[in-house]
């Protein structure tokens, strides 16, 4: 033990043990932190899909803070990510310029997003989430429903066709015309699509592709489908001692889904006899 407070509570400790075949030293546990990813592919398999983009090649491409939150992603050109006390991202800054900011309620519900282009032109574009209504630049854009959404500009209904995982495969207009179609990798990347009329994709979660961010917002955490990893530690980590704190669905996206970045759910398929 290396530190105590005035009430004799432990403030810090250091653990020593065997770190290799012949070395006994201070144990530093960083085994779940991804350092770098190498990809020999230089082009997308088809139609610039949702594959991993190897932006740099160096030993440390990902940087984390003391809580295990991702603060830099050099492959995406992210120079800094800031977090609030709930470990939710409040700001994303890009090396090429531009930023994304998020605002939350006290219980961690996202209510606001601001986006600024790299060239600094114009004002930041605000998106506000008020219950099931989405506003952009103070103008109502979408009214979200259980079946899909309503575009408020023309008051037209649009409907989702979902698979057994809740993935939005097809978006239909009120007349039945196909407006968007998505095909997903098991971990959620879109490998082919037609149309891009709305942001809710894999598991029905909001996808943010601005500036190549390419993350799904699961509520409690942001998810990188190209890596199959969340960007922060699972707040329910004590319930899952046998798996990585960053892994999506315990690395089993075929039989499980993640409802909100906190809890796994098994997919049950019944056959009607």
Automatic annotation (TrEMBL):
It comes from the Bacteria. Gene3D superfamilies: RHS repeat-associated core (2.180.10.10). InterPro entries: Rhs_assc_core, T6SS_VgrG/RHS. NCBIfam families: Rhs_assc_core. This is RHS repeat-associated core domain-containing protein. It comes from Bacteroides uniformis.
């Amino acid at each position: 033990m290396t530190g105590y407070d005035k009430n004799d509570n432990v403030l810090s400790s250091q653990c020593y043990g065997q770190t290799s075949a012949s070395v006994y030293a201070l144990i530093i546990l960083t085994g779940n932190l991804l350092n770098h990813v190498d990809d020999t592919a230089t082009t997308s398999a088809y139609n610039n899909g949702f594959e991993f983009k190897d932006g740099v090649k160096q030993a440390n491409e990902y940087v984390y803070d003391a809580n295990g939150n991702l603060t830099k992603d050099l492959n995406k050109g992210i120079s800094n990510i800031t977090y609030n006390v709930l470990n939710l991202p409040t700001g994303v800054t890009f090396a090429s310029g531009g930023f994304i900011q998020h605002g939350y309620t006290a219980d961690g519900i996202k209510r606001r997003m601001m986006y600024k282009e790299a060239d600094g032109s114009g004002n930041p574009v605000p998106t506000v989430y008020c219950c099931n209504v989405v506003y952009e630049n103070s103008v109502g854009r979408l009214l979200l429903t259980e079946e899909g959404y309503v575009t408020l500009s023309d008051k037209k209904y649009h409907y989702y066709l979902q698979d057994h995982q809740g993935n939005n495969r097809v978006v239909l207009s009120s007349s039945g015309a196909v407006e968007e179609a998505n095909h997903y990798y098991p971990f959620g990347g879109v490998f082919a699509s037609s149309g891009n009329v709305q942001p809710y994709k894999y598991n029905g979660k909001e996808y943010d592709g601005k500036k190549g961010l390419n993350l799904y917002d699961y509520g409690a955490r942001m998810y990188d489908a190209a890596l199959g990893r969340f960007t922060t530690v699972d707040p329910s980590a004590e319930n899952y001692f046998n798996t990585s704190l960053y892994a999506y669905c315990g690395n089993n996206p075929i039989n499980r889904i993640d409802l909100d970045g906190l809890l796994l759910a098994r997919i049950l398929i019944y056959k009607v006899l």
